[in-house]
Amino acid sequence: MKIALLGYGRMGKEIEKIAISRGHEIVIKKDVDDEIEITLADVAIDFSVPNSAFNNISNCLNNNVPVISGTTGWLENYKDAVALCKEKKGAFIYASNYSLGVNIFFELNKQLAKMMNTIEGYNISMEEIHHTLKLDAPSGTAITLAEGIIENSSKNNWELGEKTSEENIAIVAKRIPDVPGTHTVCYESEVDTIEIKHTAHSRKGFALGAVIAAEWIADKTGVFSMEDVLNIR
Ligand SMILES: NC(=O)C1=CN([C@@H]2O[C@H](COP(=O)(O)OP(=O)(O)OC[C@H]3O[C@@H](n4cnc5c(N)ncnc54)[C@H](OP(=O)(O)O)[C@@H]3O)[C@@H](O)[C@H]2O)C=CC1
Ligand SMILES: O=C(O)C1=N[C@H](C(=O)O)C[C@H](O)C1
């Protein structure tokens, strides 16, 4: 496939390596807000910056190029991207985390939340740790985990920081040099602690999942998720 990389930073470069190793060709590498001929590509992969993701995605959908986005921190425009995709009969995936392991972790988190909702006495909290160059907090992955818990428990919302009200989930975001991404969900009672944790060892897992998603969506029409790609719904 001919792939457009919308964002050629840490993730764009990692995706390029995996894409080439799987027999694809990179035809566009976009790193600034300039005009590109997106129709040169069979599929586009957006890992850019929060301010440019929606424009990048819209450009693909307006030109009938299937697009997957991993950029976090732009979701106030997600509904508009979905509407545009439907209007143009295009193809679009957003995932806060493309790692195959994290997508299994998302399912485990929902199952655990369902079970924990049946017993009393546990306080829930979350922690995410990322490198110091990350622009957004909490991470998109932490937000997806919190949403998975909210769907399956009596919690109403999430909030950033140590302290929270009873009905909210507290998410602590730490920034430590060179950490690719670590997420922990913790249930604590007076008598014990249950913790589930995903630790990314590098960016390779995110990049591989993104290329798999791009291969999957190339011949499809619709708005999809990684659950569709991995068939774990
Ligand atoms: N969903 C997932 O699995 C993952 C998501 N992410 C997310 O992906 C995004 C990118 O992460 P990462 O690669 O580490 O960040 P980087 O900052 O390394 O890369 C972002 C790149 O986008 C470029 N850029 C700026 N403006 C535009 C534009 N208009 N169009 C295209 N590119 C542009 C930046 O250029 P310049 O530096 O010159 O501004 C930079 O090179 C983040 O939102 C991050 O949270 C990261 C890892 C996994
Ligand atoms: O910015 C990053 O690096 C990462 N961003 C994503 C997020 O916000 O969840 C995914 C991953 O954790 C790395």
UniProtKB/TrEMBL annotation:
Enzyme Commission (EC) number: 1.17.1.8
Keyword line: Amino-acid biosynthesis, Cytoplasm, Diaminopimelate biosynthesis, Lysine biosynthesis, NAD, NADP, Oxidoreductase
The keyword Membrane is assigned to this record: no
GO biological process, one term: lysine biosynthetic process via diaminopimelate
Reaction catalysed by this enzyme: (S)-2,3,4,5-tetrahydrodipicolinate + NAD(+) + H2O = (2S,4S)-4-hydroxy-2,3,4,5-tetrahydrodipicolinate + NADH + H(+); (S)-2,3,4,5-tetrahydrodipicolinate + NADP(+) + H2O = (2S,4S)-4-hydroxy-2,3,4,5-tetrahydrodipicolinate + NADPH + H(+)
Pathway: Amino-acid biosynthesis; L-lysine biosynthesis via DAP pathway; (S)-tetrahydrodipicolinate from L-aspartate: step 4/4
GO CC list: cytosol
GO molecular function: 4-hydroxy-tetrahydrodipicolinate reductase; NAD binding; NADP binding; oxidoreductase activity, acting on CH or CH2 groups, NAD or NADP as acceptor
Residues the record lists as binding NADP(+): 30
Major localization class: cytoplasm
Entry binding sites for NAD(+): 70-72, 95-98
Group of enzyme by EC: oxidoreductase
Binding site for (S)-2,3,4,5-tetrahydrodipicolinate: 131, 140-141
Domain Dihydrodipicolinate reductase C-terminal: start-end pairs: 101-230
Active site residues according to the UniProt entry: 130, 134
Reported function: Catalyzes the conversion of 4-hydroxy-tetrahydrodipicolinate (HTPA) to tetrahydrodipicolinate.
Subunit structure and binding partners: Homotetramer.
Homology family: Belongs to the DapB family.
Record-given protein name: 4-hydroxy-tetrahydrodipicolinate reductase
The species this protein was found in: Polaribacter filamentus
